[in-house]
TrEMBL record:
Quaternary structure and partners: Heteromultimer with KCNB1 and KCNB2. Interacts with KCNC4 and KCND1.
Name listed for the protein in its UniProt record: Potassium voltage-gated channel subfamily V member 1
Cellular component terms (Gene Ontology): voltage-gated potassium channel complex
All copies of domain BTB, residue ranges: 51-165
Major location (coarse): membrane
Record region (Disordered): 1-30
Location(s), subcellular: Cell membrane
Membrane-crossing segments per the record: 218-238, 250-268, 280-301, 352-373, 413-433
UniProt keyword terms in alphabetical order: Cell membrane, Ion channel, Ion transport, Membrane, Potassium, Potassium channel, Potassium transport, Transmembrane, Transmembrane helix, Transport, Voltage-gated channel
Record-stated family: Belongs to the potassium channel family. V (TC 1.A.1.2) subfamily. Kv8.1/KCNV1 sub-subfamily.
Compositional bias per record (Low complexity), positions renumbered to this chain: 21-30
Amino acid sequence: MKSPPCCMSLSSQAPLEEPGSSTSLGSLDSSVFSSEEEQGPLIHKVIPSLDCFTINVGGSRFVMSQQTLSCYPDTRLGKLAVVVSAARDVASGLLELCDDANLVENEYFFDRSSQAFHYILNYYQTGRLHVMEQLCALSFLQEIQYWGLDELSIDSCCRDRYFRRKELSEALDIKKDAEELDAQDEEEDFSGSLCPNVRQKLWEVLEKPGSSAAARTFGTLSMVFVVVSIANMALISVELSWLAPPLLDALEYLCIAWFTAEFVLRLLCARDRCRFLRSVANIIDLLAILPFYITLLVESLCGGESSQELENVGRIVQVLRLLRALRMLKLGRHSTGLRSLGMTIAQCYEEVGLLLLFLSVGISIFSTVEYFVEQGVPGTTFTSVPGAWWWATTSMTTVGYGDIRPDTTIGKVVAFMCILSGILVLALPIAIINDRFSACYFTLKIKEAALRQREALKKLMKNSSSDSNINVNLRDIYARSVMDMLRLKSRERASTRSSGADDFWF
């Protein structure tokens, strides 16, 4: 019995193998697929049936008909069907489309995710591409691009959710890259600079409150001075017989001296001073102490001038003293909640802008309508459209001071519509902002836990290198740190699920 010609070895002159042997692309010589005229009968024996294809994806087999694949000629499997059916240059064509092939069994191998391929298979069968929920948006995009599909082919029921998740994935990737750069920058030492060891220790005390006992003490003192400064700023405006103004002034000078020393030390210890001065937190620190020195400078320069000039100087000083309220923002260095609020506002600027836009439109419309409805009423409080803006603002934000109110029935109906519109407008972006705040808060918590564990590992490694008798299991410590972060992450996911934010997490 003669063996079939499909099982030829690397040389076309070699004897044929036994029937039933598997033949991959690597075991076939390229001359076998040279031309249709010379090898046409051989090709049709190598590939006995073109009606069905066996697609092996990650070890899972799927049988698909040529008619189904030929409906999508621009996809990878559609091109595969075209190449095999044309029987022209099969070897080189298949090598570009699949990882390997068994030409005897008409089976083609792809080293890809078999779970994701179920969604690709469903697209070939129904023409509808749905999104795999268990896979992140960017990974799913890579899968469909490999198979020659476009993200515009995603069905309308999954399209909005997919693009939201893709946008969030890209934002997280950018944020992760930035955090990795920051982490690399933090790991850089002060070698080559003046007094590197001293600057390194001072920097850890100033910027890493949990790194040592001295750093924790310094962070606590800094927070105490911020609170005392805020309380002192409030007490200066109150006339108390038992509290002398010189005492409050002395307390103010003490707080300013602490803030100045803290800022100068941070500036001297910074590796990149330009980057240090561009930081938002450091700009806030500078604005918290700058008004005090500007006030002293202005008063010293204009101390002997006329009363009119002194009055102008006094106005300038009062304006500058208002900036002392920025000291409250210094608490953001020590409060995870305040930092989360800042991150939320920075990430939700589009939603906040839309909220302000909706409120502005509503205020303009309802204030104008209410003014023309109420202007003919004797003794009305709606004297002008700009005056009605205040009423519309308090009504849409559901504050309702009552200093300006409508008297007519039509005016009250307009006021009811204004209040109802305000409730609806405020409710739209609040859920998104709340979800972002929860995500930012738990992200910061995870980062803080990771930093604490990293510092602990560094200390233990340093101690173990200096003391050979110490018994430390770094693997257990690392496992505990991972478990802590997983607990925080599970809490985060539970929180976002309970608030209806499943579309934003994957």
